[in-house]
Amino acid sequence: MGTITINGKKYTFTDEKNVLTIIRKAGIDLPTLCYHSDLSTFGACRLCTVENDRGQCFASCSEEPRDGMVIYTHTERLRRHRKLIIELLLAAHCRDCTTCMKSGECVLQDLAHKMGVREVRFEDYKEFRPIDYSSPSIVRDPNKCILCGNCVRVCSEIQGVGVLGFAHRGTDAEVIPAFNKKLSQTHCVSCGQCRVYCPTGALTIRTHLDEVYEALGDPNVRVVAQIAPAVRVAVGDAFGLPNGTNAMGKVVAALHSMGFDEVFDTSYTADLTVMEESAEFLDRVKNGGKLPLLTSCCPAWVKFVDNEFPEMKENVSTCRSPQGMFSAVIKEYYRDPAHAKGKKTFVVSIMPCTAKKMEAKRPNSFTKGEQDTDIVLTTTELTRMIKNFGIAFDKIEPEACDMPFGLSSGGGVIFGVTGGVTEAVLRRLAEDHDPATMNAIAECGIRGEEGIKEATIPYHGMDVKICVVSGLANARKVMEQVKSGEKEYHLIEVMACRRGCIMGGGQPIPAGPRHKAARAAGLYKADKDRIIRKSDENPLMDVFYNGYFKGKAHELLHNHE
Predict the structure, then answer these.
(1) Which of the listed residues 72, 419, 521, 528 has the most CB atoms within 10 Å of its CB?
(2) Where are the domains of the chain?
(3) How confident is the model at residue 561 (pLDDT cuts 50, 70, 90)?
C-alpha cells in the first residue's frame, strides 16, 4: 500500500498495475486511445501523459505507481500536448467523419471535440490505401487507422489468432494482415473483436441495411425477423435504458412498426439445439463416437477449429446454430403454398455477432441448396435502423413475439452468456425440474466470467467431464491440452468472445465492466422469469417433432457436407 498525490489530493493504492488505473479510480477522466485494461500496455498514443512535481512528463499507462508520487493530470502544458497529438493524428487520417460508420462512436472524434480542435494545421501526408471489403463481416479501412495497436493485441492476446500485425516504420508504418493479404485470405474468424477495440472507423461492421430496407418496401416479400437472446440485454444501451435492461418486447414492437411481417425469438431454436445436441452427445457416449463433443453454436469457433485444429473437425457437433435452425425451419414452413400465400420469404437474423454474417453464407448450412438466412444484422445495425425510422425506443410499448414460433424456455435464453449452452443441456438431461435441481446445475461451476471453467457431473453411472471456454486464446490452450492428453473431457463449450455473446463483435460500444455484468444478469433474470426453464418442456418441441416438421429434423437442424 502507498499514497500518491494527484492534483493536490492524496489517494491510497494497493496493487494497481499502473498510475492510470489510480487516476481513473480517483474519478479523473484521462483520455487514451491505445490503452485497454483487457490488453497488454502499449503506450503508443501518449494522451495519458501526466506531469510530476519535478516537471517530468510520462505516460501514466506504462508507469508503475510508487509511494509518495506527486502528479498533475491537466496542466496547461499537458492540455497543449494532448491537443497537438490529436491534430497530428487527424493530419494522417481520413476526414469523412460525417459519413463514417463509426461517427458518433469514434473515440478520436470525441476527443477532438473535447479538446477544442477546430482546425488541423497540418496537411494530410498519407496516400489513399484501398479499403478491404473482402470479409463478409468486417470492413478494414487503413486510411482511418491511428496505429494504436488495439486490434493487433486483441487478435493475438485474447483471440489467439494473430491475423493483424505492424509493418514498415516511420511514416510508412501500417497495421495489415501478413503479406498484406485481404482479411478473407487469412485465418480471420470474423469474431469482430478487432472492431470492438478499435477507437476509430478503421475496422467496422459490414452492414446490410439497404437490402433489408428494399425487402421491407416490396409488397411481394414476407420479411421475417429472428432475435438472438443477447440482443435484448444490449440494444437498450443505445437509447439510455439502464444497463442490462431486457428490451425484447420493445425490439419486437419496433420491428413490427418498421414493417416486419413476423418477429420471432431465436431462443425457440436454441431449445431445438439443446434437444439435438444432447441427443448427439448421448449417442456418441453410447456408441463410441468422437469425443469430446465440441459445441457448434459459435461460427467463429467452428471456423477456428477448421483453421487451427482440422484433425478435430469430426468432434464438432453436426447441429446447426440456433440461427441456422430457425432460418431453415421458417423457410421450410413457408415452402408450403398454404402458408406462403404467394409471397417470397425473406429472413433477417438479428444477432450480437459479426461472425453470423459469415455463417449465413456457409454452404454446408444451406437447405436444398438455398441460403436460409438472407441477411444478418448486428445489434449495432438494429439500433441504427430504429433511429432511421424515428422510433422513440424508450417510449414504445412492448409487444409479444408472433406465433407459431414465439415460445421458448429459459434454457434457450441463457445461450447468450458463456456456459449457457452447457447449462441448458444439463437441464435437459436432468430428470427433475424443481428449483433445487435448477440451482444445483447453476452452481456446478459453469457460470462466471472465467475464461476456462471445468465441472464434473454424475450422469447414469458415469462422471461427465465438462469444459466451458470463452475467448479463442483460451480455446487454443484447452485444445492443445486435449491433443496432448493432459486433459480429458466429454463436452467442451466454446464461445469466441470473452463472456459469450453478450460481448459479441456486433454489440453496442463502448461496453465496460458494468455493461458486461448487467447484460449477464439480464439474461439470467429473463431465464428465472420464465415459466418453462427446460428446453424439453417447451410444448413447441412436441409440435415440431410430431407435427408439420415430423421426419424433417435432421435435414433442417444439422449441417450437411
Answers:
(1) 419
(2) 2-74, 86-205, 210-287+320-440+509-557
(3) low
